[in-house]
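=== RUN LOG ===
request id: a7f3
mode: sequence -> structure
chains: 1
length: 40
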Amino acid sequence: MVAAVDEIDGEVQFIIADIARDDAWLSATPSSAAELEQWR
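=== RESULT ===
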């Protein structure tokens, strides 16, 4: 699993991907992604 912040179609996205599988990823805008403290 990897996470990154990138730009998709001109919009900043938070991306989580399983690099061991093809097409296994999801993205969300940073405003709709959970903050780090909420993940703990």
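=== NOTES ===
The mean pLDDT is 86.
The first helix runs from residue 36 to 39.
=== END ===
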